[in-house]
Amino acid sequence: MQAPDIQPVAQPAGIRAIIARVRRSQGARAGAILALATLVLNGSGYLYNIACIRYLGSSVYGDMAAMLALFALVSLPLGSIQSLLAREVAQLPAPGVSALLKRSTWISVAVGSGLVLVGFALIDQIQDLLNISSRGIVIAGISGIFFAVVAAVLYGFLQGALRFGALGAAYSLSGLAKPVLVVPALLLGLGATGALAVNTVAGALAVLIAVVVLRDLWQPKLREAAPRLDRRQMAVMLVGSLAFASLTNVDILLAAYFLPSDLVGVYAAAALVGKAVLFLPSAVVTVLLPKAAERAAAGLTSQKILLASAGVTAVLTLAATVVLALVPESLLVWAFGGDFRESTALLGWFGLAMSAAALVNVYLSVYFAERDARFPLLVLAAAIAQVVVVSLWHPDPRSIVLVTLACATTILVVHELFFPHALRRARGLRLDRPESSSA
Prior knowledge:
Blueprint: H1 10-24, H2 26-75, H3 78-89, H4 94-121, H5 123-129, H6 135-143, H7 145-160, H8 164-187, H9 191-213, H10 231-258, H11 261-274, H12 276-279, H13 282-297, H14 303-325, H15 329-336, H16 347-369, H17 374-392, H18 397-418, H19 423-426
């Protein structure tokens, strides 16, 4: 008797259909490009920092890490400007984009110059507050702010115009410049000052790449006025981005203020490794915002793309956290040196804290795209609470990262209870709702 034929066609066909859809998806292709570029950018950043750690030692690296954290507090909120511009550019015709590019670029030049001048005026105060050993380190740390401001504006146009390949090139090449240039700077004896100056050079390279790629948008014959951005919305995005930057970076500044210099270096080294978790899914957020903005403009929901983005982010960050928790002390000592042995115990906690923060960042992008101010204000409240609690309770390095974990987790819990894009609601979304295949 012949056995009945078993034809497992549905599953392979389903898999092939999914793969084919992913290949056709503009969002998937863009995500892959930016994921690779982000990997290069962050990997280069880690090589840069490892070279500095090995050469400078814990105390001097603590000074450098404090200035890098201060730089991040100033530059990371610029991501809100990038996001705002990306959202507007995605919805504007070409003449409006050209006019907005010109106006925004000149404003960024003025703002960047002003911030650098203010920083130079406060060199002594910054040095005293963060217990930094020399004025040269402070000057070098501040010098890169100008290019960070201008680059954020240009990145917004690349992102909003869906030029993800060019954006990835700017990320990658400017990132690679850091480890390539920092080694000779350290070998020449320039120390932390020279290492920080490398950031300025890398920022200038990023601006140059973006200017070249966007040259077609500089059309002098067009007379259309630049569209006015919503100032209230810009303020909300700045506040939300500053709050998120504070939540994920102010801990190093607080450690520099409250802890001995050797422990600052230990904490900064653990933060360097642990915060890789935060950067792993950054390409997800970069692609998510303009896509969510397009849906919002068309009156469509963003819950399906949010659910997918949150799911990918959670899987990536929690898997990385498990890896961090299992890192042996001997490996960290081999990579950084014996001064950083105590950093090992902090890695798992950093992984959990940054996993929660990465999810907060995903939600923040969607609420930015939908022009909803409530969630950014929640992040601001948590960032303020973080500073207050650490100021009152900081017995050891672990206590600071535990406060960060508690604040980021609290944001997620409150969001699940009271906000419209809670995952418990998104899970019940009907999967047959029509959406663009290019999502």
